[in-house]
Amino acid sequence: MGTAGTLESAGVHAGDEVVVPAYGNAEVAEAVVRVGAVPVFADVDADSYCLDPAAVSAAVSGRTVAVVAVHRFGRQADAGRIREVGRRHGLLVVVEGEPGAEPDGVERRRTHAAYLDGRLSGVVTPTAAAGHTYERYVVRVPGNGRPDRDAFARALRARGVACQVPVRAPVYRMPGLRREVFLPCTERAVEETLALPVHAGLSRRELHKIVSACNALGGLLQPAF
């Protein structure tokens, strides 16, 4: 059963509010709209890119009936604290992508991530966390008032390193879901995040190439004068 089906079977209906992540894909917010409810966007935690429990609590109103949290990039949402918020306010809490059996290759990805963590200096590496499966290895390229992340990504690709911008816009700026809100952690994540290769099939030589390319571009991170 998808998000819309879960909400519908729980009695969520037109006019109800459902708190959803502002960072990520639009599918969860769209599922809320499909059952006639109103998505209310909450900010994410700066380390995990998942819903910040404090932001969830702040987003609750008298019309809020549910919260949908999503695990992101292999990092788990703080489901325990979010469920505590739910209990406090009498809300349904749905957690998408609850961890189960770990996928093939996860230990290899963790090994690759540890290698990158210990050697990268041209980017801000992911915050370590128990249970992280590194479905994506998402780093930050801090901005200095110009599109440093995008310039950094172009320079990496020119050096033969495949990389992707994981999220291009806050969900609240996507067509059909626009809201007049500004959530700072979400905005910064959209501007700064970049996914580097970490799949299980990478060779040590390819990992070294990623490190060399990123570290050689570290000058892009220096403040503009």
TrEMBL record:
Names of the cofactor(s): pyridoxal 5'-phosphate
GO molecular function list: pyridoxal phosphate binding; transaminase activity
Keyword Phosphoprotein: no
Pfam families: DegT_DnrJ_EryC1 (PF01041)
Alphabetized InterPro entries for the sequence: DegT/StrS_aminotransferase, PyrdxlP-dep_Trfase, PyrdxlP-dep_Trfase_major, PyrdxlP-dep_Trfase_small
Keyword entries, A-Z: Aminotransferase, Pyridoxal phosphate, Transferase
Gene Ontology biological-process annotations: polysaccharide biosynthetic process
Family: Belongs to the DegT/DnrJ/EryC1 family. L-glutamine:2-deoxy-scyllo-inosose/scyllo-inosose aminotransferase subfamily.
Record's protein name: DegT/DnrJ/EryC1/StrS aminotransferase
